[in-house]
Structure formats: structure tokens, C-alpha cells
Amino acid sequence: MHSERSLKLILAAASVALVSGTLGALAYFSRPTPPDGDAVLGGPQLVLFELDDCGWCQSFRRKAGRQYLEGEHADKAALRYISIEDGPPPKRYRMNSYRQTPMLVLFDAYGREVERVTSELKDGAAVETLVRRNLKRMPKS
Q1: Distance between CA 28 and CA 76 in Å, rounded?
Q2: 25-62 residue pLDDT tens
Q3: Residue 115 burial by CB count (10 A; 0-12/13-18/19+): exposed, middle or buried?
Q4: In angstroms, what CA-CA distances link 42 with 25, 103, 131, 140?
Q5: Whole-angstrom distance, CA of residue 111 vs CA of residue 141
Q6: d(CA 105, CA 46)
Q7: All residues at 6 or more sequence positions from 25 whose CB lies less than 8 Å from its CB, including other chains
């Protein structure tokens, strides 16, 4: 009696693990479908929302931003700089949330936020890695 109950418990746990693993694999390898409508940005964009007195923003412009522009992904995700001194960014950038703090945000062609970084990236290679990792999952416009 006790071994039969243990066997049922093991089979139930194995079934849950199998279903969870299958769903996890499907989620990992699936690509989001493009939304209805036009790609408002024309293609993926990497945007630094900056403040005038932001030290890491200035450092990013001098080092990581310049290195990124010379790298292989700059033509796949254009780099833009937008000041947020006077308020939120344009509405075409659909951010998950907005605070008036400096941030580097990667958007897909539809203006949807894909990833956000709120601390300094050391160099262009780190920026390239961020873009390369996310471009694979973006819908084609």
C-alpha cells in the first residue's frame, strides 16, 4: 500500500516536471509575433535616455557608445540619445515604466521595450552582447 502511494506520487511529480520542461522549452525558443500595425521605429533602436549632469551617460557617449557605433550590430539596432531633462520621451517609445532617471533601453521596431539597463556598461562589447542576445528574440518587421 505504501509503495503504491509512493509510485503514484513519483509519477505525478514526473508528469509535472515533463509538462513544465516542455512549456519552458517552448517559451524559450518561441519568437513573439509582430503586433498589428506598422513598425513605428523602422527597426530596433538602442536609446540612451540621459540627463545633462549624468556622469555615466557622458562616459557612455565617450567610450561604450563610440565603440558600439564601430561594431557589427550598430546597423541592426541604431543608437539614439534622448534628453529627458524636460519630461518623458516621445510616445512612440512604449516603455514598461518611466522614471526620470538615466537608462539605456533596447526597443524593437514596434517601439516596445525589450531590455533596460540602469547602470553603466563598461565598453562597446557589453553593449554588443546586450543587442545580440535580444535581436534573436525580436519579431521581424
Answers
A1: 22
A2: 776 666 655 566 677 888 999 999 999 998 989 999 99
A3: middle
A4: 30, 21, 16, 11
A5: 11
A6: 6
A7: none
